[in-house]
TrEMBL record:
Keywords for this protein: Acyltransferase, Transferase
Organism lineage string: Bacteria, Bacillati, Actinomycetota, Actinomycetes, Propionibacteriales
EC number(s) per entry: 2.3.-.-
Domain N-acetyltransferase, first and last residues per copy: 7-157
Signal found in the keyword field: no
CDD domains recorded: NAT_SF
Matching SUPFAM superfamilies: Acyl-CoA N-acyltransferases (Nat)
GO molecular function terms attached to this record: acyltransferase activity
Organism encoding this protein: Tenggerimyces flavus
Name of the molecule in the record: GNAT family N-acetyltransferase
UniProt xrefs under Pfam families: Acetyltransf_1 (PF00583)
Length: 162
């Protein structure tokens, strides 16, 4: 079992890019999260979303990827924020070891330190959906949709997150 203490976030550089791009979820999860390559293309194509992304490492091994909209100014059409968890991907070989929980906890801590009072995300409903994972952190549905995805909110002022 991975411990939160052994996990950390790293920038994606020329030296680790190929290893991070090789991370992938189980085939049955592809409907719920885009690949790292697609995420990086989305970040490049949508600079107005203020993309911020990092690889999740366990020691010297990349085990996951996280991407957020970070400090998005108000009034950006179609962009939720100011803090929106855009992608959270845990490589299929490292799932069920606490990587997702620890990675999300790291991001929540960073957002809180940056002054965030809430974290938004969304998920695509379906068999095997990530709703139970987010619910365990204290995320609640906002009642809004982002296309077909259900928008969730985590109140960061209540000591939320695990």
């Amino acid at each position: 079992m991975t411990t939160e203490n052994s996990l950390h976030l790293r920038d994606i550089t020329d030296e680790n890019r190929d290893a991070v791009l090789a991370l992938k979820v189980k085939p049955t999860q592809n409907q719920f999260v885009a690949s790292v390559a697609q995420s990086l293309r989305d970040a490049e194509n949508h600079p107005e979303a203020k993309p911020w992304y990092r690889a999740i490492y366990d020691g010297d091994e990349p085990v996951g990827f996280v991407m957020m909209s970070w400090k998005v100014p108000p009034g950006q059409p179609g962009i939720f924020g100011p803090y929106f968890l855009w992608r959270l991907l845990v490589d299929e070989r490292h799932q069920r070891r606490g990587v997702g929980r620890a990675g999300l906890s790291l991001v929540i801590d960073l957002a809180k330190k940056d002054g965030a009072t809430e974290l938004l995300t969304s998920y695509q409903p379906g068999d095997g959906e990530p709703w139970p994972f987010y619910q365990g952190f204290g995320f609640e549905p906002t009642g809004e949709l982002d296309g077909t995805e259900i928008l969730l909110r985590l109140d960061l002022t209540k000591g939320s997150g695990q």
